[in-house]
Amino acid sequence: MCKAICLALLVSAMLTGQTGKIPSPTFRGTLKILDNQEIVLQLEADQTVSIRRTRKTKFLRNDKEVKPSDIAVGTAIEVDVTEGPDLKPVALRVVVKATAPAS
Predict the structure, then answer these.
(1) Between 43 and which of 3, 47, 57, 61 could a Cys-Cys bridge form, CB atoms 3.0 to 4.6 Å apart?
(2) Is the pLDDT reported for residue 11 higher than 50?
(3) Buried-state track 29-65, b at ≥16 Cβ within 10 A, e below 16
C-alpha cells in the first residue's frame, strides 16, 4: 500500500511539475539534422532521435553560447531534454563536444 501511495504522489508531482529535482535526460550522439524546429541525433546504437527545439533552447561550445548555424552536421553533441506537454522531448541545452586533437 505504501508503494502505491508513493507512486501516486510521484505521478501527481510529475504531472503538476512540482518535483523540480528529477534530472533532465541527456542524449549523446552525432548531429544529423538541425533546423528551426528540430534536432535529429544519430545515437551510438544505430538509432536516431528527433528532439524539438524552442526559442529557449541554448547552444553551447566551450561553455559559451553559439549560434545553431555554427554547428555542422556530423558534430558530436549532447542534448539535455525535458518532456513537452505532448510528452515528446524538447531540447533545453545543446552542448558541442570537444573533438580530440589530431596527432
Answers:
(1) 47
(2) yes
(3) bbbeebeeebbbbbeeeeeeeebebeeebebebeeee
Does residue 18 lie within any of the structural domains?
no
- Contact of 41 with 76, CB cutoff 8 Å: no
pLDDT per residue as tens digits for the range 64-82: 999 999 999 999 999 999 9
pLDDT confidence of residue 22:
61
103 found inside a domain = no
Q: Is residue 6 part of a domain?
A: no
* Domain membership flag for residue 48: yes
Query: Rounded to two decimals, what is the model's pTM?
Result: 0.72
- Indicate the number of domains in the chain: 1
